[in-house]
Amino acid sequence: MGRLVILGGGESGIGTALLGKEKGYDVFVSDKGKIKEKYKQVLIHNEIEWEEEKHSEGKILNADVVMKSPGIPDKVPLVKQIRDKGILVVSEIEFASKFTQATIVGITGSNGKTTTASLAHHILKQELNVGLAGNIGDSFAKQVLEEGFENYVLEISSFQLDDIVDFKPHIGVITNITPDHLDRYDYQFEKYIASKFRIAMNQTKDDYLIYDADDEVIVNYLENNPVQSTLLPFSLTKQVENGAYLDDNKIIITINTNQIIMPTTNLTLEGKHNVKNAMAASTVSHLLRIRKQTIRESLESFQGVEHRLEQVLKINKVQYINDSKATNVNATYYALESMDAPTVWIVGGEDKGNNYEELFSFVNEKVKAIICLGVDNDKLMKTFGGMVDFIIETQFMSEAVKIAYKLTEAGDNVLLSPACASFDLFESYEDRGRQFKDAVRNL
Predict the structure, then answer these.
(1) Annotation-wise, does 191 bind a ligand?
(2) CA-to-CA separations, 216 to 212, 219, 221, 235, in angstroms, rounded
(3) Which PANTHER family does the entry mention (predicted)?
(4) I need a labelling partner for 164 at 20 to 30 A (CA). Which of 98, 112, 318, 365 fits?
């Protein structure tokens, strides 16, 4: 089959290595950092060659195909060298999709993709044999190797879409597009938008693209860059002929005159953005012929996603909420929008060129104190300093939570919704969220 070199020994890298080995490739895994012990053991057990804390060019530039971790930017000199040699560079989803005949639902977007993917999987698994992968859970490649599901719901980032060639989901979903990760796209929003739309790049009229018709960025892009796919928009504000819309607290989904109506009154997820996530997931389910009763019951039983507006504990009548997954301003917008009590807001981390303006009205209306939790908090202090009575900075989660505890009174909320990446102080947004929950439990 040839030589497969994998850059990055994380979940997607190890999964790809196992699948590649099974399919007869000569596999080599190279990680510039340290490989986690559990992954190392898998490589050793499967006799796959690997290296860590370096990239040996001699062992990499003789590849036939390179699978690079989505975390590695194209600007890295090694990646440029690989491309200059004409070696094919692919993402895990591109590589693994070659080895499965399954029906694929691919979900992308700046926000809401994890919730939409988890919710779609929660509904589909009631009646179908279906896996959940991509940016979430076990690696897609590993599941293709070990599980062989007939259907997959994949949460897909723009970075993974940047390295597809033939990948084609039968059903694509774009939840929304707001400025995020612009540091990876030369600070050009257009490039980031085009990257998201790669989800429909290989689709034909027999495939479907589900998207938010209230999102001007998506609508304008589609007008100027038509796709082949059959379009199924969803909207909270206008009626749509084919797709989903909201009418008097009911979701109405129509696909080729086949209509289903779902009440939203018992949705477990709160907030307008979650009605949209429910519309997208229900449209997917309707397309895959899941019974209306199953969809309705699943929407009512879905428990949400960890680190996404997750209610942690109530202490002295103060609600602590973990929204660590809010790694951009738009996600924090949803969080603050859904606050219905005076809020102490914990924000900060690695800023990706954020513009905080859209948050101003919520901060003025709902936020009583701000705790900046980052290595560099200058921008936050300058931006919000004049808007609240208390603005404090810290580099420790335990301290942030203790300060919040002191600043609250009965009926308040404490919200961790950072609007930034976590890598300045934490391993990941999950690590940040868990530290927050531990600190709350230790109060």
Answers:
(1) no
(2) 9, 5, 8, 12
(3) UDP-N-ACETYLMURAMOYLALANINE--D-GLUTAMATE LIGASE (PTHR43692)
(4) 112
Q: Is 205 annotated as a binding residue?
A: no
Residue of 207, 214, 174 whose CA lies nearest to 192: 174
Tens digit of each residue's pLDDT (9 = 90 or more) over 179-225: 776 777 778 888 889 999 999 999 999 999 999 999 999 999 999 99
Nearest to 401 by CA among 378, 429, 428, 434: 434
**How far is 35 from 346, CA to CA, in rounded Å?**
31
**Annotated binding-site residue? 46:** no
Q: Hey, what domains does the chain have and what are their CATH numbers?
A: 3-90 (3.40.50.720), 94-301 (3.40.1190.10), 310-441 (3.90.190.20)
Q: Among 343, 41, 352, 362, which residue's Cα sits nearest to residue 179? A: 352
Q: Are the beta carbons of 231 and 209 closer than 8 angstroms?
A: yes
Is 379 a known ligand-binding residue? no
Q: Is 109 annotated as a binding residue?
A: yes
Per the annotation, does 304 bind a ligand? Answer: no
Separation between Cα atoms, residue 33 and residue 40, nearest integer Å: 13
Q: How many CB atoms lie within 10 A of CB 358?
A: 13
Q: What are the C-alpha distances in Å from 418 to residues 75, 97, 145, 367, 436?
A: 27, 34, 37, 14, 12
Query: Which residue in 435, 418, 231 sits closest to 308, CA to CA?
Result: 418
* Residue 112 known to bind ligand: yes
Which pLDDT tens digit goes with each residue over 227-257? 999 999 999 999 999 999 999 889 999 998 8
End-to-end CA distance of the chain: 57
Q: Which residue type sits at 216?
A: E
